[in-house]
Design a protein that fits this description.
Elements lengths: L1 H17 L9 H11 L5 E4 L5 E5 L7 E7 L4 E7 L5 E6 L11 E4 L2 E5 L9 H4 L10 E2 L5 H5 L8 E4 L4 E2 L5 E4 L2 H16 L8 E7 L7 H10 L3 E9 L21 E6 L7 E2 L2 H14 L4 E5 L6 H4 L8 E9 L6 E4 H17 L15
Helix pairs in contact: 1-5, 1-9, 5-9, 7-9
């Protein structure tokens, strides 16, 4: 019953946060709301000049600094120009999939629009098989002149987000919608700070909500340099298989409904990534085993998360990433299992409770040598 209560709270908070538009570089609504949510559970809070949120638990005078973080931003588009007839030309922000843009509903400064499409009656059979280039796409806000659009306050450089609310599927433990990457992790982080409010910690905890992850892991690099923590835990989402078009063994050994994922390696082959820090890897695995929390061990070869920039800062920050698996990554209908998110919350809480100067982070002390 208690788990059901937290699961429902996790769903409602994720739905609320995903409804806020926070395309990279325009995360203000998301950061403002998370500041309100986290403030009651920390001693001090700060937002840096680029938008990253820092929330400090400072009641412990000594002990190692543990940074736990999730990113606030989502992929989207940006206004490139406004044509005389009021249509908006656009560019991508982050890993937008062009084939998923045509015919979608979007928002610009809260105003509804659609991404236009050439009438099917006029398309040749060849055109129907092709994906229009970004150069040919446009957003229609329902007006006929540039002046009317500018009258809404819309300008070049404004962000454009999908309009696709988070909802439950027929299986109500599975949810779908836009910006689950990474608002589900922001919800986990906010609830984590609430659950820890009466817990005496053996570390100095800093909860961090980063910005601009989708365009180069930028906020995490700034935050890591500022805090220089003894260790860091990144909470994010990760693509999952389990569908006919993603082979579990050959493509991606991750399933939704099987628990959080500890990424052992990411971004191999030239993409910026990470190889798991041995001490943090062992700490996460041992904690999950002793707490009875399911944990998937997997590789993420073609992409990465904030850990890739964070662990390289200063002299190197021991870090681990807990991923919530999701299907249909970087689409307006990302899909995940609330049970995985709840297990991620439980594991993150256990890791924070256990973290102290006694946790071994030495490279030569790993159990997997």
């Amino acid at each position: 019953m208690l788990d059901q209560l937290w699961e429902n709270r996790l769903f409602l908070l994720t739905k609320e946060l995903a409804a806020l538009d926070g395309v990279s570089g325009h995360e203000q609504p998301v950061i403002a709301r998370l500041t309100e949510l986290i403030r009651p559970y920390v001693q001090s809070i700060d937002v840096d000049s680029y938008g990253t949120l820092y929330a400090f638990r400072e009641e412990v005078a000594a002990g190692p600094v543990l940074m736990i973080t999730a990113h606030a931003d989502e992929i989207g588009l940006i206004v490139k120009s406004i044509e005389p007839n009021g249509l908006l030309r656009v560019e991508k922000v982050g890993g937008v999939i062009e084939s998923l843009l045509v015919g979608r509903r979007v928002r610009v400064r809260g105003h509804r629009g659609v991404i236009g499409v050439r009438p099917g009656h006029l398309q040749t059979s060849e055109e129907q098989r092709l994906v229009p280039s970004l150069r040919d796409l446009y957003v229609d806000l329902g007006y006929d002149t540039r002046e009317e659009v500018e009258g809404l306050g819309i300008r070049v450089g404004d962000a454009i987000a999908y309009e696709e609310p988070v909802e439950r599927l027929a299986n109500e433990r599975r949810i779908t919608g836009k910006a689950l990457d990474n608002r589900i992790s922001c919800a986990v982080l906010a609830l984590l700070m609430e659950r820890l409010q009466h817990v005496t910690l053996s570390c100095r905890l800093v909860a961090v909500v980063t910005v601009q992850e989708e365009v180069g892991l930028r906020g995490a690099q700034m935050a890591g340099y500022r805090l220089n923590p003894d260790a860091a835990i990144v909470i994010d989402t990760v693509p999952a298989g389990g569908t006919p078009d993603v082979d579990y063994y050959r493509d991606l050994g991750i399933r939704i409904g099987a628990g959080p994922v500890l990424a052992l390696a990411s971004g191999m082959g030239g993409v910026r990534g990470h190889l798991a820090h041995p001490g943090m890897r062992d700490f996460v695995i041992k904690t999950a085993q002793e707490e009875g929390i399911p944990l998937q061990l997997a590789l993420f070869p073609r992409s990465t998360s904030d850990i890739a920039s964070l662990h390289l800062v200063r002299g190197g920050i021991p870090a681990a990433v807990l991923n919530i698996p999701r299907r249909y990554a970087h689409s307006p209908v990302e899909t995940l299992d609330l049970g995985d998110a709840l297990a991620t919350l439980a594991l993150a809480e256990a890791l924070v409770r256990r973290f102290s100067s006694a946790v071994s982070l030495g490279f030569l002390e790993s159990e997997w040598r």
